[in-house]
Amino acid sequence: MVAPYGVVAISPRIVTMKKREDAVESAKRICKFMEMAVRTAATEGAPVKLVVLPEMAIQGMPENFTAGNREAHAAFATTVPGPETDVLAAKARELDTYIAAELLFVTDEDFPGHLFNMAFIISPEGEVIYKRAKSTSDAYEGGALGTTNPHDIYDEWVAKKGNGNVLDAIFPVAKTEIGNIGYIICHEGAYPETSRGLAMNGAEIIIRATLIDPQVAQGMWELQNRAHAMFNQTYVISPNLGPQMDDDGHMFDLFGGRSMIVDSKGRVVARQEGLIPGDSFVSYVIDIEALRRARAANGVMNWFKDLRTEQYAAIYEQPIYEKNQYVDELPQEGWLAREDVRRADNIKKLIERGLLTPPQI
User: Fold this and answer.
1) Which positions ≥6 away from 130 have C-beta within 8 Å?
2) Rounded to the nearest 10 degrees, what angle do helices 20-41 and 83-95 cross at?
3) Is 92 in contact with 124 (CB distance < 8 Å)?
4) What is the pLDDT of residue 109?
5) Distance between CA atoms of residues 81 and 89, nearest Å
6) Which residues of the chain have pLDDT under 50?
7) Cis peptide leading into residue 358 (ω within 30°)
8) How far apart are alpha carbons 123 and 289 in whole angstroms?
9) Checking phi first, is residue 105 left (phi over 0); if not, alpha (psi -120 to 50) or beta?
10) SS3 assignment for 288-347
11) How far apart (Å, rounded) are the C-alpha atoms in residues 96 and 351?
12) CA 236 to CA 225: how far, in whole Å?
């Protein structure tokens, strides 16, 4: 049995990484705030058992980092486990909580030369128990930053990371004593398939981390988070980034904050409002056993029991953005333009299939 427990979603201010060591110092700063946030959240009467951080919380956006810049890749690349996760692991042991976070530019011994945008979860014992690479991305991710999407080396990734099982390779879920947890990274949350993949692999808690404006201010962030929760009967824990400080001390905000926690019926049960010029958090006490009872009940709002999966499979029989496109070469300088052309070709393909109708004016 899982007793109700507190969840904390941290919305930290951003510090741009200029050298590798900056990320470690950022992790230390976040951990200091984390201690206060956990202590405050625990005043609700339930121990905090899960703390989540958004994408880019630890590293910000490194300067002079582009596809093909191997010098920058070597200087900024990290590992999981590594120095940054070591800092978080010490705090996880101290606070007796799971910590979920993300790092850009993570190397993987199975795929030398490639860098991955990687989510991870650290146990209360300080062990990395979960890793998941970002698997749906826009042109900027691979074309400008030079990170590799697992779909671009799909066959080999599925073979090595999932032993041939696509769900375990692309949509892994951490099965823990506080529930089954999966992590969605930023742009992935714009697609319903990502959360459905995690849910179909057993996720009860989905972390959906980070989205940039104008999507946040236009309501897309909240709409997506609530939809992921309701359609998949999961809790969705959504930490977004706080403001950023430049070298001249000017504060600016590109992400819009509004961290939130959503219950399995799509209701926002905790939300950060307004621009907060520093680190902040939202928290809530969740009840996994209540969620499990609702999911196992033979009621109308238990969606999973009614899925007629054979007819849905036809939706994806024809590929759009095709797999294995980085198998023979690493991302190179100038690939952002290449990616833009590729995606424009995909739009033409969709028009030819009759899926899209081109505008007449």
Assistant:
1) 100, 119, 120, 121, 172, 174, 181, 183
2) 20
3) yes
4) 94
5) 9
6) none
7) no
8) 20
9) left
10) HHHHHHHHHCCCCCCCHHHCCHHHHHHHHCCCCCCCCCCCCCCCCCCHHHHHHHHHHHHH
11) 53
12) 7
Of 124, 125, 121, 147, the closest CA to residue 136 belongs to 147
d(CA 10, CA 207) in angstroms, rounded, equals 12
pLDDT at 326: 85
DSSP string of 110-153? TSTT--EEEEEEE-TTS-EEEEEE--S--HHIIIII-PPPGGGG
Cα–Cα distance measured from residue 317 to residue 312, given in angstroms and rounded to the nearest whole number? 10
Task: Supply the pLDDT for residue 315.
Answer: 93
Which amino acid, one-letter code, is at 44?
E
Smallest CA-to-CA distance from 82 within 109, 64, 60 is with 109
CB 130 within 8 A of CB 83: no
The backbone torsions φ and ψ at residue 202, rounded to the nearest 5 degrees and listed phi first, read 105, 0
Beta bridge pairs of residue 280: 11
Indicate if the alpha-carbon torsion angle 274, 24, 195, 352 is positive or negative. Answer: positive
Calculate the alpha carbon distances from 116 to 7, 167, 250, 260, 267 in Å. 27, 18, 31, 26, 33
Show the CA angle centred on residue 262, arms to residues 256 and 263, nearest 5°.
180
Burial class (CB in 10 A: 0-12, 13-18, 19+), 235: buried
- Tokens for 241, please give them: 């980034």
User: How far is residue 357's CA from residue 352's CA, in Å, rounded to a whole number?
Assistant: 9
| Residue 224 pLDDT | 97
pLDDT tens, residue by residue, 118-143:
999 999 999 999 999 999 988 777 66
**Which residue type does 348 have?**
K
Contacts of 197 (CB under 8 A, 6+ apart): 167, 170, 171
pLDDT (0 to 100) of residue 119: 98
What pLDDT score does 73 carry? 77
* Residues 348/355, Cβ–Cβ less than 8 Å: no
DSSP string, 205-238: EEEEE---TTTTTTTHHHHHHHHHHHHHT-EEEE
| The two structure tokens encoding residue 42 | 């625990």
> How far is residue 122's CA from residue 140's CA, in Å, rounded to a whole number?
29
